[in-house]
Amino acid sequence: MTTAPLHDELEYLTRRYHLYRRRYQVPAPPEIDRLERNIRRRRIQLAHLHDEISRLERHAATLAAEIAGYRKGLVALLEDFIDRTARAHGEHWSPTPVIGYRLWRVEHGMLHGAWTVWDHPAHEAVCPTPNDEDVPHLAGTCSGYGYGCGIYAAKSPHELADVHLTEDADDFVIGAVALSGKVVEHEHGYRASHARVTAVVVVSAGRRVATSDPRAVAEFFDDPLGADLDEAWEPVDGDLVAIGRWLETQGGQRWTSENDGE
Ligand SMILES: [Zn+2]
Question: Could you tell me the distance, in angstroms and rounded to a whole number, from the CA of residue 142 to the centre of ligand 1?
């Protein structure tokens, strides 16, 4: 018995079969003829199937590319339609700042929001896509989180604390922000193009101090570990509910050119 693969063995035997038939003028046995015909027919069918599969694969790739193109076009058209409709109704440009609430944490001597470092009380939104016009975008397709780009702020300090802080949290910074420029409203919060911190409460190791003094806020955002938290700061007594109430009363003062500080 040979160890060669079947097709090699079959080729070798077929050659010898024809040789012997020629040599001794023996007619082809019908069962051998039949098997050879069956193999030939199926080879042809198989070749046709492979052609068909390649054709289908090419067709599928074309369809997928067309879908991707149409989706891209649709995103652009939807974004344009929504932006134009919103602008036409003037509902997304806020003439007076809207007050929202945010959380930060101190890390490596800097204040960190959920996604970026805040080294100044004023912050301007950027879009992760190259399209930096008319931020925050309304279509919500431009960031991997939430509703899209923009500076996020909650509508209520209580809800913000409920969602993001535990009852005994003692290492965070919570503040009120005046949102201006383009402000998009959502159910529980806002996305804005511009934000400025108007009041802040620092909670660390049992210490709770607060300020709404623009200069003190600016100093704190510039250097959260080095800032003097005594002058222009006041202690806030009570739990998260009390902190929220303080922010609601102190953070609501409108940011005007007088206290802009720049
Ligand atoms: Zn965007």
Answer: 5
Q: Which long-range contacts (CB under 8 A, 24 or more apart) does 145-151 make?
A: 145/115, 146/191, 147/184, 147/186, 147/191, 148/191, 149/125, 149/191, 150/125, 150/184, 150/191, 150/192, 150/193, 151/123, 151/124, 151/125, 151/177, 151/179, 151/191, 151/192, 151/193, 151/194, 151/195
205: left (phi over 0), alpha (psi -120 to 50) or beta: left
Mean pLDDT of 179-184: 88
Instruction: State pLDDT tens for residues 52-95.
Output: 999 999 999 999 999 999 999 998 898 788 778 776 665 556 66
CB 225 within 8 A of CB 109: yes
Tell me how far the alpha carbon of residue 150 lies from the centroid of ligand 1, in angstroms: 7
> How much distance in Å is there from the Cα of 108 to the middle of ligand 1?
28
